[in-house]
Amino acid sequence: MRLCPLSAARLLLTLQLLLSLPNALAAIEVRDDSGRTVRLENDAQRIVSLSPHITENLFAAGLGGRIVATVAHADYPKEAENLPRIGGYNSLNLEALMQVQADLIIAWGSGISFETQTKLNALGIPIYISEPKTLEDVQRNLKDFAKLGGVVEHDSPVLNTFERALAAHPRRAARATVFYQIWNDPIQSLNGTHIVNDVFSRCGLYNVFAKAPSVAPTLNVESIIAANPDLIIASGLGNERPAWLDRWTTYDRIRAVRNQALHAINPDLLQRPTPRILDGLAQVCHWSSQLHDSNPNAHSR
């Protein structure tokens, strides 16, 4: 039986569609934190991480072994210390980056300049922009990384841990105020756009400098006295309690001093958007509950 030209053309088109189907099914698509669609034809095998938090999250997602390069200060987990470096997140060695033959670049949106991002785009390598502002964003980043690497979600214990932590700590109305100090000279804090505020909101705390115009406002002693927080939480460098935290004890006009609520925390547990932020969440909520239990009338909100 002879096919008419129209039938033959339809048959040819059907065959072409069938042949292209495996490639279409193999393609992976996710939407990054900038709203762009990131598409890979196959699972990512050679990943460049351009931020310490991204490196940590790739390990958490089971993809640490596929990182071919990262940047300075990517120090967690311990295995990350042995990864090749291609500069800092804002001072990249593009020549070194090209030499590692990456099939996926994951960059921190706030950590690269427009000029650097333009140069990265020109390389023709898929780029995922990570910019988590909430704990749900961290969770979504982990899911996206797992998907881009072909890792099945239920094989990642960290995602199950996130689900439980988010369910156990919903956002709730603030019943106390907190001043979060990240440095002493000059005195600095973080405003309401930073992920630490999502932690505070889940612990019933309101950041007294949430409405500051800059992300990391520079402050003076008078502004902290005027804000009169119920708690002061300070982070310095690592696990050491900053010596300057206890200088606040001389200002007994501040409720946090009268409440004996001066606490220190490793900045990585609050400022790095990684699974370790859940440890910071648990610690901050403990301090908030401790304040309420010891002095229910101490709260200003």
Protein model, in words:
A 4-stranded parallel sheet has the order 4-3-7-8, with helices on one face. Mean pLDDT is 90; it is low at 20-24. The chain has helices at residues 5-26, 52-60, 94-99, 114-121, 135-148, 157-168, 196-202, 221-227, 255-258, 268-271, 277-294; strands spanning 28-31, 37-40, 47-49, 67-69, 87-88, 91-92, 104-108, 127-130, 176-181, 183-184, 187-188, 205-207, 218-219, 231-234, 262-264. By secondary structure, the chain is α/β, with parallel strands linked by helices. α5 runs antiparallel to α6. The protein has 11 helices and 15 strands. The radius of gyration is 24 Å and the shape is elongated. The protein has 2 domains: 27-165, Nitrogenase molybdenum iron protein domain (Rossmann fold), CATH 3.40.50.1980; 171-298, Rossmann fold (3-Layer(aba) Sandwich), CATH 3.40.50. The longest helix is centred in the first third of the chain and has 22 residues, at 5-26.
